[in-house]
Amino acid sequence: MAKASVGAGTPASIPALLARNVAQFGSKPAYREKEFGIWQTWTWAEAAEEINAIALGLLALGVERGDHVAVIGRNRPALYWSMVAAQKAGAVPVPLYQDAVAEEMAYVLEHCGARFVITGDQEQVDKVIEVQEKVHQIEHIIYQDARGLRKYDHAKLHALADVQAEGRAAHERLEGELAAREAELHTDSTCVMLYTSGTTGKPKGVVLSNQNIIETSKASSEFDHLDPHDEVLAYLPMAWVGDFIFSIGQAYWTGFCVNCPESADTMMTDLREIGPTYYFAPPRVFENLLTSVMIRMEDAGAFKRRMFHYFLDHAKTVGPKLLDGESVGGMDRLKYALGNLMVIGPLKNTLGMSRIRVGYTAGEAIGPEIFDFYRALGINLKQLYGQTEASVFITQQPDNEVRPDTVGVPSPGVEIRIDDSGEVYYRSPGVFVEYYKNAESTASTKDAEGWVATGDAGFIEPDTGHLRIIDRAKDVGKMADGRLFAPKYVENKLKFFPNILEAVVFGSGRETCTAFINIDLTAVGNWAERNNIAYASYQELAGHPQVLDTIQSHVEEVNRSVAQDEMLSGCQIHRFLVLHKELDADDGELTRTRKVRRRIIEEKFQDLIDALYSGKPEQYTETEVTYEDGRKGKISATLEIRDAATVSAQAPEKVAAE
Questions:
Q1: How far apart are CA 359 and CA 357, in angstroms?
Q2: Residue-wise pLDDT tens digits, 59-76
Q3: Strand pairing report for 140-143 and 116-119
Q4: Torsion sign over Cα 610, 616, 622, 625
Q5: Do 289 and 437 lie in a common domain?
Q6: 290 and 410 share one domain
Q7: In the predicted model, what is the mean pLDDT of residues 150-170?
């Protein structure tokens, strides 16, 4: 299938959209940043001038057409400007995860061949300098925040402000070249290169064109009626495709304002101050917010607790109906309005969600209780399903068709099909161009007709057209007796409990399923404090008998739920243990987007898996960990292994492996 082209008269690149926005919305806010407790605002016209100065400065430093310019740091307007400036100069921006360790950074920088790296602060500069021992093509490092860098060798190290100043000074000499390069940009020009999370191996560089980004941004913005008056909070990693679409693609298509918080620690305060109208968060953020609300309510007085639960119970019935435009009786409306005045409104304001018109979550399944809680508050929370290779959007939930158990219908312009094995395939104008320097993976992922294999197993409901995702296709297997094994289905059910942060289920090819579990230190720690239970570390709390009792009750509740699904009843957990450490991206156990790296976990904790299946009541283990300063160390523990009650289910006849 030939890709649809950007419509006639539509700007063909992000820099062209910037020029259009200056003409149409020049005096409207484009970016805000909170620094030292004060919000600073740039209009579209002012942002364009900053971007132009960076682009000219990059030309003065020697950026060539097709160069890859790495961008590393927290969400800041200047780093977003740097990505657009790189495009204006004919280069390709490559954002990296700011919390990546030097080794991860080295792979991406070497793979893309970046000659220029634009960083936020000293921490990122130090990591780039460290990797230069392995990655020799880096010629210039540019930084925004000069704190701590005064005594560094500045021969190849430059302040972004100085690069801009040099660009402005060279305006007459370089403006013609910059204009020529910008004029060369077209729909098929590379807009950005984003690296996958690397759950099963090395990350792959996903090449996305201007057409991919602009068509997807246009369709998704029109789907949710986004406009120049919307506000977003840019706090998710800049290297993630979702942030690029929300903070550059959709922002430049619609002309809305991108707000950058001061830091991760002030994010909730900044969220309340901005009051975004368009908001995205992964399920873990919504879960953490709900956990913090419930913790505060446990500490509140009896009257406040009763009032909270009284009005919330009513809101769970009425709120979703009001969102979906269904008929609601006058008394119910009045009661909801009273609850909104006394409980719901103040709570939404505390969460910074008073003005949210469209909210999305994606990446993992979200618990029905959590989903229903936010919709009960009148927050239009919906689910989407996407991938880096799709420029994010594959499916979305239309207004009035929102459910916690599906990921919606195909986004505008997207086609979906399910192959015989149950794997989901799609094609759309957002389909990526290629994996950089990896023709073999490109060919195995995207066929000649443009169909892309998602790697996820699912099915389309015949009556609604909604897509339901079961699990990663590669993780779906068979139990020893032939029953279906879908670990993520069970893991998501476990993670719906506030006390459980992460879970990893094993069982493919085996008679029974077992699990590793991480407790949520915030939720369980608060419970311990309320019950006067002293603990000195995560490890000590994770091994406390009452904590294990609580986790066992959660596991057994999930088993009862799983048993009701005839297809997946074999996935009940027979034995489990609570790990002595949190699974960590720095230790290679999770990706930077917090996806489980199953193969690494299986190799690293093979002794614990063997103990789960051998019937042992406990197991001693030693594990290498990475401390915050980068040092390596070892922790040891003797972990208690518990049996969990299961529900009898009629197993099908054992089938032979074919």
A1: 7
A2: 999 999 999 999 999 999
A3: parallel
A4: positive
A5: yes
A6: yes
A7: 95
